[in-house]
Automatic annotation (TrEMBL):
This is 8783_t:CDS:1. Residues 1-20 form the signal peptide. One of its GO terms (molecular function) is transferase activity. It comes from the Eukaryota. Keywords: Carbohydrate metabolism, Fucose metabolism, Signal, Transferase. GO terms for biological process: fucose metabolic process.
Length: 456
């Protein structure tokens, strides 16, 4: 070999081996976080202008990527509300959102706590859960814990058009891994933490004339404009949960947060297919009334347990106001919007209508979603009043077989036990009318699905 080319050969081999190593063994941050490419040239452009809550000409001008993240907690719908709020913050602050996964657990959940306590609970409890699942195997019944990326369950088209995000994949929420990914070497100067000392310290506002919180749950106002101007590489929120977390006056901001919530819709094909099949057994979309009764108990769910009988009575009263004045023929079905014959009513609803006395056929077909089974004593008066009430656990369990083999792409965990409640919500939402339990985040979300799919 000509000696003149020897250095070039060495350089080529060095580059080749380096690239090969990086492909096969990527750096730790690439193993922990998955980058999300948001759209392409053919995507529809955002209908929202760039957020401009700040008019200060000396605002932040930087080519460096800036980030934000938050801490998840509580049940699914509280986590969903937190994500919706975080998407808005990401948009208005023009920061890449480091998105925590959905935390699913059948044994326990991480409660809403102040920042430091919440971080310790996430790290400690999840580490224990992960260790148990590693021992038992993710498909074992003892492993009742998994973390699912939000995109696996919800429609992300709107989010992809408006913000940048990456998935947070350090499963035990180790802040050191977070800092390593972001190449943060001095957190004191590179990280701004909004650490709540109580459950609800901060309410965020966008108008300089706002001088007080709009809800007594909150103690302090935080100006979105001041956050937008910050140069820190990472803004780390604790909990961002609460439907009234924002005190907004800017019309663009109000429209955007409303659009985020309206577009946070389930789009998992298996869940939608199962829900549609069950709905068809009740006469199809719009041919029955969906009801959600959260009964709770006297333990952790005391708020709903104490009001259970009151909520049952209120929903019965509201349903009775929906009844027509004349009985139906046996081939007719009650529809929330109107009454008219259905030629091809499916077997479950048809059997029920034919089995009851003619004078009762003016009552609606009802699909009841509840956290308690049919035998719960607090539901007795409900079933006495309405003879054709269907529940997932009593009437449609055979349709759930389609969920039995669904696995989490993250870790291979079976999703059946976590996905069943979504079927309840999907079927209830497809009714011609939906009546939910006051203050229930589950009911609030089913109202949203109902409005999207049925439109009333």
């Amino acid at each position: 070999m000509n000696k003149r080319f020897f250095p070039f050969v060495i350089l080529f081999l060095t580059i080749y081996l380096t690239l090969t190593y990086l492909i096969c063994f990527p750096p730790n941050d690439q193993l922990v976080y998955k980058e999300q490419t948001n759209g392409n040239e053919n995507d529809v452009k955002s209908s929202f202008s760039n957020p401009s809550t700040c008019s200060d000409p000396n605002g932040v001008v930087s080519n460096e990527e800036r980030y934000m993240t938050y801490l998840p907690h509580s049940g699914f719908h509280n986590q969903r509300n937190s994500l919706e709020n975080a998407v808005f913050l990401s948009w208005v602050l023009n920061r890449t959102l480091i998105m925590p996964p959905i935390l699913f657990s059948k044994k326990k959940y991480i409660p809403h706590r102040p920042f430091d306590v919440l971080y310790n609970m996430l790290n400690g409890n999840l580490t224990n859960d992960i260790a148990l699942c590693e021992i038992k195997g993710v498909e074992d019944q003892a492993c009742k814990f998994t973390q699912l990326d939000w995109e696996e369950l919800l429609n992300f088209e709107f989010i992809k058009k408006h913000i940048r995000y990456v998935h947070r994949n350090d499963t035990n929420f180790d802040v050191k891994e977070l800092y390593s990914y972001l190449n943060i070497t001095n957190p004191e100067t590179q990280v701004y933490t909004l650490a709540e000392e109580t459950r609800y310290d901060f309410q965020f506002y966008d108008d300089e004339n706002t001088t007080q919180v709009s809800n007594d749950n909150f103690k302090f106002l935080v100006n979105l404009c001041s956050l937008q101007k910050r140069k820190d590489k990472l803004i780390h929120f604790g909990s961002v949960y609460h439907l009234l977390r924002f005190n907004l006056k800017n019309e663009d901001n109000i429209e955007f947060i409303n659009s985020v919530r309206e577009n946070m819709i389930i789009n998992h094909p298996v869940l939608l297919n199962v829900g549609e099949k069950i709905s068809e057994q009740l006469g199809g979309k719009g041919a029955y009334i969906g009801v959600h009764l959260r009964l709770g108990d006297n333990g952790l769910d005391r708020k709903f347990g104490e009001k259970a009988e009151e909520n049952v009575d209120q929903i019965i009263k509201e349903l009775l106001n929906e009844l027509p004045t004349t009985p139906l023929d046996e081939d007719d079905v009650y529809l929330a919007k109107d009454l008219f014959p259905v030629e091809a009513i499916t077997i479950d609803a048809k059997k029920c209508l034919r089995s009851i006395a003619a004078e009762q056929r003016h009552v609606p077909i009802i699909y009841l979603a509840s956290d308690k089974p049919r035998k719960d004593q607090r539901l007795r008066k409900f079933f006495r009043e309405f003879p054709c009430v269907f529940m997932l656990s009593s009437n449609f369990t055979k349709y759930l077989d389609a969920l039995s083999k669904l696995k989490n792409p993250r870790d291979g965990a079976l999703l059946f036990q976590y996905f069943v409640p979504f079927i309840d919500g999907i079927v209830a939402a497809r009714g011609g009318k939906f009546i939910g339990t006051p203050e229930s985040t589950f009911s609030d979300y089913v109202y949203r699905l109902h409005h999207r799919w049925v439109g009333s």
